[in-house]
Amino acid sequence: MSDGDLAGLAAAVRSLGDRQEILDCIMREARGRDRQDCDLIASCWWPDGIDEHGPIVSPALGYPERANAGHARFFSATMHHITTHTCEIEGDTAHCETYVVGTMLSPDRQSMKIAPGRYLDRLERRTEAQGKPQWRLLFRRCTVEMSLDGSAEWVNGPMCQGFLRSVWSKDDVSYQRPIEVGSDGERW
Q: Domain for residue 102, yes or no?
């Protein structure tokens, strides 16, 4: 293998690694939202970051707590499903468009909303104090493309009785290590 081949291979591996780190960051942020895990959400943002959710523009500092309070005020559970993802990387800056399907359960657990939209993100790779470069969100703009409201009677009925259900904390079964069958957890 020539030096040129090795350099090309190294560049390809770096590009793939960057793309995976960027997608991992976006996925971690969604998971943090769905578990109301402020530490996990904050770990995805640079301190000077800014989030735009409709008319609400929030600085990253304090954003996890504000976002969680907003969700808790209107919903009893949320899920942010990350789907189509495109990413343009130029040096230490990435511009991404990521489709998200938000599902939200009402406080009384009797109805739900489905709201597809997109995250339009700018991420930057910066070096932390410990010297390891990492990708984090700097700017996020959100779209809402459509919505659907419906009954949540199915999850409250006999077909789901006994299934695990989510918890907005680190008590959620997804934090259990090791994962074991039949262990305790919140259930329908």
A: yes
Enclosing H/E stretch for 166? none
Q: Is residue 164 part of a domain?
A: no
| Residues 102, 48: Cα–Cα separation, whole Å | 26
In a domain, 182, yes or no: no
Phi, psi of 112 (to 5 degrees): -145, 160
pLDDT tens profile 39-77: 999 999 999 999 999 999 999 999 999 999 999 999 999
Whether pTM exceeds 0.85? yes
Closest residue by Cα to residue 167 from 184, 147, 150, 151? 184
Question: Is 68 within a domain?
Answer: yes
DSSP codes, 40-70: HHHTTEEEEEEEEETTEEEESTTHHHHHHHH
The one-character DSSP state at 172 is S
What CATH number corresponds to the domain at position 129? 3.10.450.50
